[in-house]
Task: structure prediction
Amino acid sequence: MTRAEEFEDLRPLLFSIAYRILGSVSEAEDAVQESWLRYQTTPTQPASAKSFLSAVVTRISIDVLRSARVRREEYVGPWFPEPLLADPYEDPARSAELADSLSMAALLLLERLSPLERAVFVLREVFGFGFPEIATTVDRSEAACRQLAARARRHMDAGRPRFEADRREREELAERFFVAFKQGDVDGLQELLAADVHLVSDSGGKAPQWGKGIFGAENVSRAIAALVSPFAQIGGVVEPHQVNGQPGAIFRDRDGKVINTWTLDIVDGQIQTIRTVINPDKLEHVGQVADAWTVVRETTQARRSTN
Result:
């Protein structure tokens, strides 16, 4: 097998590691590409391509994350990871860990960790790497890596989202939610929302958003039900879709361009949080991006015309 073939076989794993460390599709893709360039120019063939490339992409991701954190501190409004529609890496033995570690809630928890803690946690808890390999990757002793992993695990366990255990139940509830949404059924929506539900969006100051968010089942259900008729009038489409391993949707304009993505955190049989990503810079990998300001203007005009 050539180096190029080995790399392509490992690309899904490398991307999945980088994405969980960085929370960015574009930065993860860049880290993977840089890993290939380093692998391609390594004078001797590593004993294990997987170990070598996993270490390289992790080190690159740690460096990128350190610089990205400064930019995120200056970010306008709430910062969410770039939405990921499908994880390219699959491992049946670790499917539960892979899915839950991909959620917006889990990635936001990872943001609280230091870059080293985050990398060690991802390698150990998500992908099951051994401590000797992790120690070599991050250039720390095994004992230090165990401490980093334990500290990261405590932070994660303290805030870990309690998602609905049964994935099928999550999907069925999400389906009911989007049916009620399309019907503009305020009561039907409210029934599915937790009393303290929070609807919040990431626009980065580059698209319209709901201020600091909308709180409470009644307020959220009325706000989103009010969108239905005018959004339909301008040809908008709601496309239910898994986003970051959780139930969600892609909103498109009449031309099929992406307006935003929604993800639903479902806890104890109710929707606890609705996160929308509308920052156009974070949607380019999903598809051609719509002008959200134009969509809002047209929706507002359609609403006024029916009142």
Residues 13 and 41 are 21 Å apart (CA to CA). The chain has two domains: 3-159, 167-306. The mean pLDDT is 92.
